[in-house]
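Obj.: predict assembly geometry.
Materials: sequence records (below).
Method: joint structure prediction, all chains together.
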Amino acid sequence: MQTTGEVSVFSPPSDVRSVSVDNDPVIQKETPEFHHSTGKEEALNESSSFISGSPASSSSSLSVQSFIKEETDSGDDEQEFDTARLAQQVKEALQRLNIGQRVFGHYVLGLSQGTVSDILARPKPWSKLTSRGREPFLRMKHFLSNEHSIQMLSVIQERLRDRSSDDVIRNILDQSRLEMLDDDDEDDDDEGSRCQHSGDESHNIIRNILQQAKHEMQTQTPAMNDAPVQQEEEDYGTLEPSVQSLADFVQSIIQKVKCEINEDAEPSVSPSSVSRSFQTLPADPGQTAQGFKMETRQSCELQSLHLDTFSITQRVKETLTVNNIGQRVFGEEVLGLTQSSVSELLSHPKPWTKLSLKGKENFIRMHLWLQDPQNIQKLNAMKKTDHRARLKRALIGSECDSQRCLDVGGQGFCDRWGQCEAMKRPRVILSAQEREALIAVYQTEPYPSQHTIERLAAQLGLHTSTVSNWFYNYRSRIRRDGFSEPVQTRIFQNPTGCSPVSASLVRLKQEPSDGEMEDADLQREEHNHVSVGVQSVKREKDEDLSEL
DNA sequence: TGTAAGTCAATAGA
DNA sequence: TCTATTGACTTACA
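Observations (raw structure tokens):
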């Protein structure tokens, strides 16, 4: 999971700020001293209290955030910490108070549960940490030294556990309504009050916007296309008010356009009712003069459309987590995507400027979903329906199992509809050595020639398509992860620790090309090295390679 | 035809 | 049962 790596020592990341207890409906409802802030900006303000939130309560309940800031300002950076001991103390405290790593990570460190777990389980020595790496430990140290903060977190955890989902929904709805009022105030009071804000009505709006976006892309001048690449923070958008208000502005446009169209609401924004392909979108909506006017307006506004993809994904993740909604349900009902695609989208949001139209559609959907005051309610309803459907399918499935039989040819199990499991091609899992070899070649030749791919495939005992796919995917993920190495976790460790493949395969790159003399002995030797790793993985062997 | 972008299904791990 | 990862695939485009 992607963590909020942009966090600076005293500036909690956007996700932390936006889900501070200030905005936590659970806490606000249950604890009198927690007040709603008067507006979003206040909630986003770093100086706003982290737990107490309200200025009225700041004197009595010192916030974790402000406490951390004050304490760390005193120059703890100069000290040498025993990180292992610190981690142990935190673990004990969390255990004692029954506080989960997720809550601790989210509210105190601004990190995901996975990262917290890693830090607590394997704390690096202080001297080995960079200033960024030291930050969580500073936060932990200050957290531990303030009993009040600990108690507050305990309260948060308790509230989160105890609250029924209905209360959570109700509070989130309240919060959404407040935000809507804020938006409307900023935008246009009259319009805002006239327009009924409903996610169900956004189908046509998305359609029109996307259609216009496509049109705009097609008619863009070369100068626009050749615009210099913006810095990454600009790509992702920032929490600068101007950029944030742009997203809000887009939302207000959508509302206004909906009012102007005055069309009947679509039954649902569900992706099942919306084509995921721009190519199949309905015809131009602006057939009338008014339609054309509207189209022109949208067209102008779309030129400045820029959603903060990172912020959107953070907010979606928070909302899903708080409301215990899985990526699967969210993906299927809101985006029309599978869980894995949702996971990728949420964990590795691409900058808005790097997205294709199709990619932008997902973020527009997420943005609209976040704005929908009934989003959680709808998804929970879907969840219940989905659960019943799955139970039913499971029941039917168990009945079907008894009807399964071995097919005549012994190819594998077939169900009563004749679908054979044996037809499925087993998934290729590359060994650590193979991966290492591929990376080694990538480093010298990120775009390998067909000749290189074939030789690499032969030496590794892989299909050429597997090798070329690997290069496509690796390049793609390098780009996605910001030009650093993509995460490679599923590595079959070589027990010997040796990696004879990479060196020899780098050498492969320097070998003579087709038609030139080859070192057959070296080739065999390399192949033998590779075979060690190959034996441990399940995959289909290239038939041609059997000749080797 | 090769590449980028987007996506899925299988899988691992918690 | 959940999320993250990754090999493979589809589509659009130059």
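Conclusions so far: Residues 377-423 of chain A form one domain.
To do: check interface contacts against the pulldown list.
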